[in-house]
Each structure stands twice: as C-alpha cells, then as structure tokens.
Amino acid sequence: xxxxxxxxxxxxxxxxxxxxxxxxxxxxxxxxxxxxxxxxxxxxxxxxxxxxxxxxxxxxxxxxxxxxxxxxxxxxxxxxxxxxxxxxxxxxxxxxxxxxxxxxxxxxxxxxxxxxxxxxxxxxxxxxxxxxxxxxxxxxxxxxxxxxxxxxxxxxxxxxxxxxxxxxxxxxxxxxxxxxxxxxxxxxxxxx
Length: 192
What we know:
Layout: H1 2-34, E1 38-40, H2 45-65, H3 72-96, E2 104-106, H4 125-139, H5 144-172, H6 175-178
Antiparallel strand pairs: 1-2
C-alpha cells in the first residue's frame, strides 16, 4: 500500500509537470503565431492528447485495481530510464527555447533549425525522452500492461508525427541539409 501511495505521488508530479508544459507551450505558441508562424499536422494533436491522458489514467488504474506488486529490481532501472527520458526532454526544451511547443509550429521566414545543445547528437531528443517515459514510468510499480501497450501506440503515433514534423521543417528551413547525417534516436558524437 505504501509503495502504491509513493507511486501515486510520483504520478501526480508527472501530471503537474505535463500541465505546466502545456501552459508553457501555449505561451510559446502565442508568441510564435504573433510573429507569423505556421502550424502543421493539426489533426494529430487530439490523438496525442488522448494517448497521453489514457496512458496516465491506465497506469494508475493498473497499479491500484490490479494491485501490481512493487519490485525494487524493476523499479530502480525503470526510474533511471524515466530520469533519462526527463533529461532528454528538458535538454530539448532548453535548446529550443521559445521555439519549443507541443504542436508542430514552424517560425515565419523559416529560420535556421536549432542544431546546438542536445540537437548536436540526435534529431529528436524530445521524442526519445517521451518514449522512454511512456515505457519506464508504469514499470516503476509493475504496470507492465500500460508500459507495453502505450509504448506500441506511442511508437505508431511518433512514426506519423516525426514524418509530418520533418516534412514541415524541411519545407520551411534548411532542416534536411542541417540534419542529413544525424540519427533520429541513437546518439552519436557531435556533427560538425
């Protein structure tokens, strides 16, 4: 019971973080739109919101209703993976600054793509971070059904999302040339 309460507190912190991120994203969106930015792949947003809301609800329900047992041997690596996911996402947010949004928005006049910070090593640190979080957070308390099912759903959604984002960035900036030799998810040394 105690471990479920601790997990629920961690879950609540993640929910609060996601709500803060949505608020920050909206502020960035307003600023970008006022400068003439364009939104792409608008139809994907309801699916992303639904997936993340369902993931949050499902893992908590699985832990409490199915009384998933706590295993320290699983919780420790899951927490480390979750922390890595958080770190990747925060590094991406920092590198993008006011360009960071939840939606796919390209600045007016294209603008040079962000190629420094974590983006020196890979193209999509934010999406890699999200994928690690979706897998790892439920496993902190043994919610393996949520971890596996939502990881698969997230992978499908990210395939569509990344294609749309890369198309938009390539059409409005020098993204394709800037990231030609950079991997999407597996980090490598900095690209000159």
